[in-house]
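Priority: medium. Attachment 1 of 2:
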């Protein structure tokens, strides 16, 4: 494996690790089915900060790949995968930010005396938070899919590179065998014929 193949393999593994990280992060956002399933503000603040940090990480990857300058169409496609993942993750942050606002409303009125308008407001806040958390989960799934698709592109490119190298080695070996056969079958060059005429002695006058 040459240096470029090693670089591509390392990049592929990196993308797969990111995909696993996004999958684990999605598990931190279970879909709430009742108000009691919602996270408290402390945990929600941590989740929001983690999502924002992931967006920064993926955005940094896009910057690194866009300034790499490597003339490889396969790696250009990988740059697109990083960009799509960063975009999906940014949307996920926006959705969780919207859910966070609803959590703030519920927390602010958690000790307010119950009345009909407040009850309706709480129900509406829960419904909105539930939908935005569902959209957050979807954004994380889409970002993960972008990472796995990018890794698949690199895997295909690596397999193609190995296949081309194998064909080149095979063609070189065939050429070497053909050349050896041609040399073996070529007629041997006949030795130079010596003249059979031997001049006689020169008689004096």
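Attachment 2 of 2:
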């Amino acid at each position: 494996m040459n240096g470029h193949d090693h670089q591509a393999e390392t990049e592929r593994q990196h993308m797969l690790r990111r995909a696993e990280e996004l999958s684990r992060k999605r598990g931190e956002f279970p879909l709430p089915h009742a108000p009691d399933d919602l996270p408290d503000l402390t945990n929600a603040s941590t989740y929001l900060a983690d999502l924002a940090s992931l967006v920064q990480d993926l955005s940094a990857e896009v910057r690194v790949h866009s300034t790499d300058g490597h003339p490889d169409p396969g790696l250009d496609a990988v740059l697109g995968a990083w960009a799509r993942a960063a975009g999906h993750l940014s949307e996920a942050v926006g959705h969780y930010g919207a859910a966070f606002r609803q959590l703030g409303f519920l927390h602010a009125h958690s000790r307010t005396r119950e009345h009909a308008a407040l009850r309706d407001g709480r129900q509406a806040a829960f419904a909105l938070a539930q939908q935005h958390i569902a959209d957050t989960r979807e954004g994380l799934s889409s970002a993960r899919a972008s990472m796995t698709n990018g890794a698949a592109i690199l895997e295909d490119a690596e397999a193609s590179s190995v296949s081309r190298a194998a064909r080149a080695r095979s063609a070189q070996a065939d050429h070497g065998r053909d050349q050896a056969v041609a040399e073996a079958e070529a007629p041997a060059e006949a030795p130079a014929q010596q003249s059979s005429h031997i001049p006689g002695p020169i008689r004096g006058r």
